[in-house]
Amino acid sequence: MVISALRDHVSMWPLSGSEIEVRSGGSGPRIVLLHGAYGWWGWEPVHQRLAERFTVVAPSHPGFGSSPRLPDVDTVDDLAYLYLDLIAARGILPARLVGFGFGGWLAAEIAVRCPHAVERLILVDSVGIKTSGREGRDIEDPFVLVGDEQQRLFWADPSRQSVPLPHPDMNEDLLEAMLSNQEAAMLYGWKPFFHNPKLKQRLHRITAPSLVVWGEEDRIVSPAYGKAFADSIPGARFVTIPGVGHYPHREGVEPFVQSVVDFLG
Predict the structure, then answer these.
(1) Which one of 3.40.50.1820, 1.10.357.10, 1.10.3210.10, 3.30.1460.10 gives the CATH number of domain 3-264?
(2) Which residues contact 43 (CB under 8 A, 6 or more apart)?
(3) Quick one: which of 182, 184, 187, 141 has its CA closest to 165?
(4) With 223 labelled, which of 88, 205, 240, 251 sits at a CA distance of 20 to 30 A?
(5) Where are the domains of the chain?
(6) pLDDT of 154-194, one tens digit each?
């Protein structure tokens, strides 16, 4: 990975008296991609493939990438309203939302708050709900692990994929960006850990046709968790992709993109 890749296809859009970093490109109907807890690392292969059929709009949440933190924006609730303002200001209403992990949680919160603002909803290995009892653990915590142990949570085959993790020999700019992303993820998702205890009971408010996509070997949030998520959204379809883990959009780009194209037409 090179630092220049972090700037490909990037522009800054005005938002709430500040600005937000947005990767965009392609042609066709617009789709808004909401990233997970590790952010974007450039114009990724999944962006390129989706841009062959759609106009991809992929913002970096405040505090991630080059998007500055915003005053009084420190919860997922705040982010949901912020994105409702953004898609309205850019004329992307109703929006086709695709949320990955933490971004899936955010997309679901947007859809329950303002159902008519979402035309289609795709959740990809999303966090955000509670499915077990009070003492049960639904979501594994990769931040407490290091190195290979952390990689094994993310991938079906960690010998072929990796998430860049902070280490002392890393390029200083990249290290600073990664640590900033992790700090922002903790700000929005730490307490309670990457879920809203009340979200599951509100998912019935979603009116958009919805697709829930899951990696069959996800070790962060299991396929059973994904099925419970889908079952709570009226009419939602649930599909799994074999041989991939928590990042099907990176580990299984082609089958993932095909599932999106089939759903969005």
Answers:
(1) 3.40.50.1820
(2) 5, 8, 9, 23, 25
(3) 182
(4) 205
(5) 3-264
(6) 999 988 888 777 777 778 888 888 889 999 999 999 989 99
